[in-house]
Amino acid sequence: MSVLVLGSIAIDSIKTQLEEHREVLGGSASYASISASFFTPVKLVGIVGSDFPREHIELFQSRGIGLDGLQVADGKTFRWSCEYEWDMNRRKTLSTELNVFENFTPKLPDSYKTTPIILLGNISPVLQNHVLEQLEDPRFIVADTMDLWITTTRPALLDLLKRVDLLVLNDSEARQLTEEASLIKAGRNILRLGPKFVAIKKGEHGCLLLSPDRFFSCGAFPLEDIRDPTGAGDAFAGGFTGYLASLQKEAFEFADLKKALVYGSLLASFCVESFSLDRIKSLSRKELDDRYKFFRLMSHFEVLE
Ligand code: AMP
Q1: Nearest one of 30, 35, 21 to 56, comparing CA atoms
Q2: Ligand 1 nearest atom to the CA of residue 144, by list position
């Protein structure tokens, strides 16, 4: 069962307190599609400029990622730069150059329209809605979002929430969206806005998963060295959605989503071990499964196989 991944494809420049890496591959769709490709075939929807390096296209191809929905436009690829503080939960965006992204209208190839599992990666909710309108009867829709859209495009985001199965967002965004301090209350309020499930990420403190009658809390994999947190949320969403798709089910139970959440968290843990996609692109399925087994034992999650 394949996954359609929509999102940004970027050239990032990232500075931490220890290192700086300029002009590396980034973007929500890049992290999410490579992460999902560990589990299932992926169809990418996004836009790049004519300057987009060939090696990045080859990386997507080497993972079997379908590129029929990738537009290559005249002009420069979306560029973004940021700087992290010592507390890597805190970062400052230094620049955002939309470039070809500014006039992006996703148009799905016919072969994409019946894709059963959809990941609307972090991108404007106007574009997320636009993609949903082109799909024929998707089975499960995951959407990611960020503070920018909660502030600037709230009505479109509220429309989107009525149509998605799972919303993924981080703790501060959940509080911002609902104006609730308690994450449990925030999660419950988000469910009232439409999604059947909500996953609230808490960075190094793990993640919560809520449905109207179920609750699951999962710690993060304990890492000693975090080099670059960029894209962790997108790797989480990609791993989560890719794993769900690999189950090949008509409908998903809460137990399926719990396992998906653990796989998503583990993809995120590998992602932050190095800059850009360097770690996840060299990751093997065996390394991922070994970390899953270790995490399961460590967490005493008897519910997980
Ligand atoms: P994350 O660390 O999960 O927030 O994702 C970081 C990625 O999001 C980077 O690789 C950026 O290129 C990308 N990004 C930053 N700002 C935006 C934006 N406004 N829209 C879409 N993608 C963005």
Answers
A1: 30
A2: 3
